[in-house]
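Risk register update: the risk of archive-format incompatibility is retired. Evidence:
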Amino acid sequence: MELSPLPLLLLFLVLISNFQSGHTQDFPKPTLTVRPQSPVFTGDSVTLRCELDKITGWEFLWSKDSNTESPEAETITISRVKVSDGGEYRCRARRGGYYTHYSKPVAVTIHERPKPKVTIKPDHHVFRGETVTLRCDIYNGGVTSWRYNWYKDSSTSVFSERQEHTFSSVTESDSGKYFCYGRETGGSRWSQHSDEVTLTVSDFPKPTLTVRPQSPVFTGDSVTLRCELDKITGWEFLWSKDSNTDSPEAETKTISRVKVSDGGEYRCRARRGGYNTYYSKPVAVTIHERPKPKVTIKPDHHVFRGETVTLRCDIYDGGVTSWRYNWYKDGSTSAFSERQEHTFSSVTESDSGKYFCYGTETEGSRRSQHSDEVTLTVSVPRAVLSVSPQKWLTEGDPVTLICEVNGSSTGWTFSWFTVTVSESRNDYELLSDSSRGAGGKYTVSSADLNHTGVYVCRAERDKTAVYTTYSNTQPLWVTGVSPPVSLIISPSRTQHFTSVSLSLSCEDQSNSDGWTVRRYTDSGRLKDCSSFLRGSQTGSTCTIRSTSSSDTGVYWCQSESGENYHPVNITVHFGVILESPVHPVTEGNNLTLRCLYKYTTVSNLRADFYKDGSLIQNQTTEMIIPTVSKSHEGFYYCKHPDRGESPKSWISVRGESKNYNHS
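Archived output:
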């Protein structure tokens, strides 16, 4: 009978389903075993076996930590395992196209093989008769109980199986190199070998006593005695002086600031447990009183600049035959000389000061006391120049330059100079009538315009050939009725902002270019325009490209023949400035003042105005004084509540019949 195609297909599907159902239910589950049991030490071998009740024909598949399976034998052995070999293992088997179930996973734990540590008490170096204990400690590894094995000098025979081995009374024969290792008491694991430790047993030593520094020693020094025992630890040291009773001290005994009574014969020994070493060889310590040097100065403690001066250091007694001398000045810690005598061939004021010396032994470490300080005073004659009655003058006024020498009033001859500029440096030109002021006063009964300039003086004393330095500078500013030249300033005011352009021109009636602009500052420096940092001179015009506060000073015009005219005081300021006239105001005219600030869109500030420190008008943009008189002369400045205050400017008032300039 033939079946239709449909029943045949259904019958085939049923058979396949039954066969597959029987396959998954009947295949066995392997058993995974590990030998030895975990944990295992690195370097050991581990064997894993996948067991299937002796049914043959299987191919075994292994995986670790759920990674991809790899075919292996039924039994796999990992030789010399590493920590990375640890993990969770499982296996299954395959035959044909069919697989067993996975085995139950088994964890394999790998520990680093522990290394014992050996300690020796009381020390690695001991002495005959002492008690010594060796101890073997094994940390980590997961082993709770060890059996210890001790070896000596690479012997293969175990001489002890205890964790601690004690020699109750060691002898020299116990000296040697020891090591240990451990085996698991109830298993097969073992540790590494410990490092070898050396035990040295010797006869009790004789200490060496050393003294630093070597005797004799000076009072006040420190003496250090050391009882040396070749770096062996655990000792208590006993000291005696002049065979007196021992007293316990440290290994090193320091006597600070020794006295003569600290001298004597010292010895030491050491004690550990109940055993004492031999005494050291005795050492004598000798203490001398520390000598004190004496300093002399020739020719005297008080001398003039330029003279020759000799300092001498003498040290008497002390038992030292040769000294190296050390000279100090004004408490400095650096010696400036090591000779017994130190000579200044030509003293200056910088040599003034307090001097002392002391000595150090040439071939040893001893040193003297410090000498008493002695004071050397070098008189430096210095000329001081002053002006009477004042440095701002009107043509025809009398004036006197006064030159004095500080600290001395007799025996001086004076010379007088003007300061000139030569190649951007200041030179001194002797006045043609300098001898007129040889007595210390140079008087001009009627000042002329060309007396404007900067002056210095100098003094000398013939007997000792001592000269003063040039004095401080003193300027004379002379303004007149009709000066031959005018200093024109642009912008036309005495106060100017920083970082702006400033022009100064010397103009005479013939429009000559034979004029040079000079400047004098409070630092006493005299310069011409071409030597300014940002200045240049074209014809008789000086241009400062970008002003700075260092440009503050008195400016004037100098002729080719060296005559000086029309001085004007100019101030350069960063913040607020006062706008005031360059030249004196004529009596009866109006005076207008403004307060200016560079960094504002408003041409002038609303500010308070002051004269000679007193408020005269507040919160105004422009102050006008109508019909000025001599009483309006004075120092003026303005002050803004936020921007600050301007420098002060002198406002001069001249009579109607006069025509002079005073700024």
